[in-house]
Amino acid sequence: MVKVLFKSHEKEVYCKEGDLLLDVARAADIFIDAPCNGNVSCGKCKVKLLSGKVDTEKTRHISQDEIKQGYILACNSRVVSDIEIEVPSKLSSSMHGMKIEGVGKEKDEAIFNRAKKIADTNGLKFCTNIRKKYIELSEPTLDDNISDVDRIQRYVRNNLGYNEVDFRLDVLRKIPKLMRKNNFRVTLTYIQKKNKLTIIDIESGDTGQSLYGVAIDIGTTSVVVCLVDLINQKLIDKASSGNAQIKYGADVINRIVFASKKDGLEVLHRAIIHETINPLLQSIYEKNNISKDNIISVVVSANTTMASLFLGVYTDYLRREPYIPPFMKSPKLVGEDIELDVNPSASVYLAPNVASYVGGDITAGVLSAGIWASEENVLFIDLGTNGEIVFGNKDFMMSCACSAGPAFEGGGIRCGMRASFGAIEKVTINPETLVPTLGIIGDCDPVGICGSGIIDLICQMILNGIIDRRGKIQKDLDCNRIRFDEHGIGEYILAFKDEYNLENDITVNEVDIDNFIRAKGAIYSGASVLLQSLGMDFTVLDKVYIAGGIGNSLNIENAITIGLLPDVDRDKFQYIGNSSLVGSYLALISRSAKNKLEEIANQMTYVELSVYPGYMDEFVSACFIPHTNIEDFPSIKAVLNI
Amino acid sequence: MVKVLFKSHEKEVYCKEGDLLLDVARAADIFIDAPCNGNVSCGKCKVKLLSGKVDTEKTRHISQDEIKQGYILACNSRVVSDIEIEVPSKLSSSMHGMKIEGVGKEKDEAIFNRAKKIADTNGLKFCTNIRKKYIELSEPTLDDNISDVDRIQRYVRNNLGYNEVDFRLDVLRKIPKLMRKNNFRVTLTYIQKKNKLTIIDIESGDTGQSLYGVAIDIGTTSVVVCLVDLINQKLIDKASSGNAQIKYGADVINRIVFASKKDGLEVLHRAIIHETINPLLQSIYEKNNISKDNIISVVVSANTTMASLFLGVYTDYLRREPYIPPFMKSPKLVGEDIELDVNPSASVYLAPNVASYVGGDITAGVLSAGIWASEENVLFIDLGTNGEIVFGNKDFMMSCACSAGPAFEGGGIRCGMRASFGAIEKVTINPETLVPTLGIIGDCDPVGICGSGIIDLICQMILNGIIDRRGKIQKDLDCNRIRFDEHGIGEYILAFKDEYNLENDITVNEVDIDNFIRAKGAIYSGASVLLQSLGMDFTVLDKVYIAGGIGNSLNIENAITIGLLPDVDRDKFQYIGNSSLVGSYLALISRSAKNKLEEIANQMTYVELSVYPGYMDEFVSACFIPHTNIEDFPSIKAVLNI
Questions:
Q1: Single pTM value for the model
Q2: Contact (CB<8Å) A326/B142
Q3: Greatest C-alpha distance within chain B
């Protein structure tokens, strides 16, 4: 056994000689960002070896200078002696400081109310089949000595008119003591369905006003939980955090690969339930002084992979042709089945999936966006860790998924990061000096750059002639912000380490730009092909809804300039926030919204881009700024003077 | 901390100074028979202190001689130093050697077939709603890329005609890998109900012939498990053992008291599931080479207390006036809910209860006895740890429970024991010498006397003039088998310690006889009052069925002689074995038998003896041999020459 001291965390653990440092850190519950999950491809798991020896290999992610300083990658270093390690604090804490869109309560309410209004005007009723009722039972006597359960059933039959009265074991276990706590005065929580009534909870005394539900949006990157009062349908509180699965891979493909390894599925299932959702629920209960037993309904929206891992279902066939999801509609579930910190009998409903890469988050998003009721043609783009696109109106809906990868959340970019504290989210470049002005989340020293920042940066670079339309940096610019390495690869310096208190300069190079161009090309060409498959083009669009975490600081004009979004009237664009979460909120407060979700999933046509004829050509054409065919971007053509 | 060495078990454990020796033994998993559960009232938990010191109190259960030898009661001795203890081996192993009725397979089959025949001739159909079906699914392609679950549902809709196809989470978790194991050829196990089909298991390949269920009879004293082939309804195997709850109390009242203590309910729930039933199931699976996943239906019969503890439901109100059971009909359950070692989705059905002391074991017994279809008047007596009585025919049924206590299983008798190896089960007494001849279970040295032995003994004592009709031993008999202590209490010596290899004589004294007379009086008067409540008497009886563990070696003539059973034609009596087990077997193989069970429970009237006017007088009159009113026992009157 050898000893590993994580000096930054003041934590000392023991491991076997030869253990991978990344695994040791994970076992010690020390978060090291490793989006590529140990494939030595992203270079994000850089840590500093302070003393001792590791067995490591050279990698392009560590410069000569960094080698001297002791930097290694945790994912390709094996511990061979007692060592001391420093995990860069900004990286290790990036998950906790993650910025989640719509944190302001007013803004939240506006978004939720907008969706409610759409639902309301289109005939969805705001009621559920869950009820609470305070009842006063007669006390048992020798002459009236039916069982406790029969006493309740008799009351229900005689007073509520249900002949079939069901209940679950955990309710039965509560009944005897609880009925007698307050002289046989109890409150029943029950679900009505046809002629059957299912009792899902029993409480002492009158608790008829405590009826809550939670809407949960499980993103690949972040998870949001909303506490909702089911009596008045009000949003009470919201809590969010990073998805604790992140340490096992940044995107769904890496998670699926990890889940296919020994115990991997169980590890990821536990990570989402016990390390992400349950702590969020606990914090929200404590803050609002609510018992978990009063949470009697849960609606979850998630992409197909996240939904499967949430249920502990094997995911490997999602990533293998012909890309088969395990399920579209989940089975009937209660909280206890997956150890969710809610009432054990609470119903847990998952928004139905459409395909392997168009999941319940998209059906929920479409529900809240109201596309199903829209007379106008709507293009819906969810820019998260995945890129999903829906096009349609009240008569039809088409969907596709783009392999955009995690670029919009900083993946595949050397200095890229998620939209958390220290991320450069806005960039402008002075046309004279080519010096940038940065907007940084948290107004602190910059740590890296996030998706919206990269969009701004690339836009500013092309507008100021720093890059050409292929993303190549011009060689004849006389500016200290631009430099080329020994292989001739150019980079632009966003922040010199001396300007701030940094260990290294923050730069974006041609490889990063190329990665990002391919990501934006995937989205644009996906949307384009989706319309083509109907014999249409972008001129038919009446509305373009942008949803997802990326959207928050997204500059629409810049996004059109680089060719991520189509060049249509700017007032057609609308940012609709976390539409997936809003959709699960609607399904939580409305039975007819749940039914609508099922309808949406059934009606939506899925186009598998990877086998769609002509998609590759479209994609290649879109890997250009803004596009190979500049005529598709008339307003940009003028600006760029082409 | 002090050290306790259980020398007999070669087991050494540590405990706190002042800990009760009985608790220390239980924590160490060493079985010490303690039927009264530590009330210092039965004297059964006698152990020998070999060295060290305990803090104990004098008790009538330990003689002066035994004190000298180091005997103490585990239930009133606290450990105050390191000690060495010897647990008498015969006591500690009595549970394992317990004799269960009907062990012979032929005898079993005869009993089961008799019940099947009754059911068959009375219109019960032998089929269930559980099916298996081998199906060959088409393999997914890019053009046919519906989810795995949808693929199965589509097949079921198109080929089996069910529109609603449900499945449980544990089945969903199996689906993706399992479907691909054998090229999408799988066997479904499902339950049909109205228009709905619920898939409860999926297996690779064709396993259509492996469909099993288990019938479980949970007695207060012993537990029996039957493995049944659900395709041909054959009884495959049977296993039985003592109920591991015994160490926490011999009868239901002591169990209820224990269950009301801190953690007591959980301890008893675990004892029945994890220490009794699951080990029995495991042994039966191993022996018959069957996977637990192939057990897809379970039927359990148990008295109301045992059924509640089986489900982990609080029982304390069962023993408090007005004696309210928590439930009659259990909720819908699957194996996973109570961690039963069967398929997690297997349905678990409990025979419904009628009252606090007439449980599912009695409804199941009545089902198998066929009273519900009988033209004749049947008296049904279950002589187990409790005494339950049913009287009726196809038109009506009445039931009651007698507080007979555990006397029929050796409780309340100083040398009493359950019907396990070493128990004296038959006794005859030579009229000349008054010397007994003993029938001993296992043909070994005697350890104690069981219920049927006591019946024989008391009968022989009255026939030979050793006792009078009040159970008092005659003083003027010149025989070394009879002696009186300093208080004048007489005892009869069944076995001198020198005759066998015993530590003490085996005797039955006047206090024991008195206890037993009260138990038999409770049964007789219960039956009598039950008939009186209908304005009838024993002359209306066409049949008397004796069921339960006691029945096996029961001598009917002797039982009538002492006034346990009514003095009616001997050929009206029939021993029907473990009728509760047979009833749950019927419900396992027949849906209509299950429905019949519900009907029986609904129709049966319960008479609460403890508040029935005149019951106490009847009971007092019956506490006499055979009865105060000898005219009710004409044939005995002649024999006894009264």
A1: 0.84
A2: no
A3: 101
